[in-house]
Design a protein that fits this description.
single chain, 3 domains, Rossmann fold, 443 residues, Beta Polymerase, domain 2, alpha/beta
Length: 443
């Protein structure tokens, strides 16, 4: 029996120090997918890696063996001992796994409920999986239904209206240090979507100027132009620390972009003016030791969890509606999944009917003499039509009963009635011989 399994960690089960071990290298997701594809007991797979979650979704007929293999992959990629990793992992199977991925796609499992980024990240992970041909009938259907569930949640509830982004939460956190932003200067390190959102929030709160540093200078120019910021090179970060009051960092760098010594040197020249860092990146961009310096404040993505409780009452109310939509979609997917059990029987039924049709047609043709092409085509169409019409009702019945409590009983009965299994055929033939013998004895 095919099982759907999801193993992973998120912002609730694992601290950022652990999550960043698996997110340190951007190629980890590709490597994980390639390694899962090589495991014989895993039939389909997808790997999702974001700043707040790492998840492996797969199908298998050997659940325990497959789960053990996936945990080994996670340990190897993050260079994490199993005893440290396993306590931070969650595992969902079958209907629970379906429900979980639907909730993740609908942003009901996010640090910021209703945030839109996660759906794009899942779509990207799915695109990578399809490109590498690691998905099949079940995961393809599962992901498309997840996207449909997310769309319904977004359009049928107000959950996104009440949401705040991580970037917005970061700016709200900055307000605790600077009661007002008028005259303050900002520095963005990294020019991705989260950094740009943060810049817009800072400007809306009165920050006077924002510099944008990116490893690719062209990207820094592009982002800076969108909100009249100042593009700077990555090499100028040290100099910019002398001027900036608020630094928001969100890069994909594997190591620290801002070091303890770098900030320590800047603080002397700043005459200890407060410097506020919000490190949205995973792995982290700012050395945590920077927080030990006087008048320097460093917050990472896990520190934002308290800020994202904004509008929590409204979001929870909408989340109840969203969970109901998710549950509807889970039930629909489960119904579809059960119909897959019918497929082998239907295929066998059609194959047997076609074998009989071909054999009987061959016998008939030998006694009909020579027929022209039109007559042969008519005879072919006639026999095909007869077999299709005879099979139509049994096939429709099996499909309708697939998700019912006694669905398997109907399948077994169909296989016996039509002698689709060798053992059933032998059993029925043996029974027929017995009936014939009894009949002869009576006469």
């Amino acid at each position: 029996m095919i099982r759907i399994v999801n193993i992973g960690m998120n912002h609730e089960t694992a601290p950022v120090e652990l999550r960043e071990c698996l997110a340190r290298d951007a190629a980890h997701a590709d490597r994980a997918l390639a390694m899962m594809r090589e495991i014989p007991c895993i039939r389909e797979s997808l790997f999702l890696s974001t700043c707040n979650r790492v998840e492996a979704l797969f199908t298998t007929e050997q659940a325990e063996k497959a789960k053990s293999s996936v945990v080994s992959i996670l340990c190897a990629l993050g260079e994490i001992p199993p005893e440290r990793l396993c306590s931070s992992l969650f595992t969902y199977e079958d209907q629970d796994a379906v429900r979980h991925i639907f909730r993740v796609a609908s942003s009901l499992d996010s640090m910021v409920i209703g945030e839109p980024q996660i759906l794009g990240q899942i779509k990207e992970a799915y695109s990578n999986a399809t490109k590498e041909r690691t998905t099949g009938v079940i995961l393809n259907r599962l992901l498309h239904r997840a996207f449909h569930a997310a769309k319904r949640v977004r359009t049928e509830t107000g959950i996104s209206d009440a949401a705040v982004s991580v970037s917005y939460a970061a700016v709200e956190l900055a307000k605790k240090i600077f009661h007002e932003f008028k005259g303050k200067k900002g520095l963005l390190i990294g020019a991705g979507e989260m950094a740009e959102l943060a810049a817009r929030h800072l400007l809306s709160q009165g920050v006077s100027a924002i510099a944008v540093a990116n490893r690719t200078f062209e990207k820094a120019v592009e982002v800076a132009q969108s909100f009249k910021g100042i593009p700077v090179s990555f090499e100028e970060i040290g100099a910019q620390l002398l001027e900036a009051d608020i630094v928001i960092s969100s890069t994909a760098a594997p190591g620290y972009v801002v070091t303890h010594d770098q900030v320590k040197g800047s603080m002397k020249r700043r005459r200890n003016r407060p410097l506020f860092f919000i490190d949205i990146a995973v792995p982290r961009d700012v050395d945590p030791a920077v927080n030990d310096l006087e008048n320097v404040y460093v917050y990472d993505i896990d520190d934002l969890s308290g800020i994202v409780q904004v509008n929590i009452g409204q979001r929870q109310g909408e989340a109840i509606k969203a969970d109901r939509i998710v549950e509807e979609e889970v039930i629909k997917f489960e119904q579809w999944l059960k119909t897959l059990e019918v497929v082998p029987t239907i295929v066998s039924l059609k194959e047997k009917a076609e074998t009989i049709r071909q054999a009987e047609l061959k016998k008939s043709l030998s006694s009909l003499g020579e027929l022209n092409p039109a007559q042969l085509k008519s005879l072919e169409t006639l026999t095909l039509s007869i077999t299709e019409k005879i099979l139509n009702d049994p096939i429709l019945f099996l499909k309708q009963k697939a998700d019912r409590p006694h669905g398997k009983t109907y399948l077994d009965t169909a296989r016996r009635l039509f002698r689709l299994d060798r053992e059933n055929t032998d059993e029925v033939e043996h029974g027929s011989e017995q009936v014939d013998r009894e009949s002869e004895e009576k006469h």
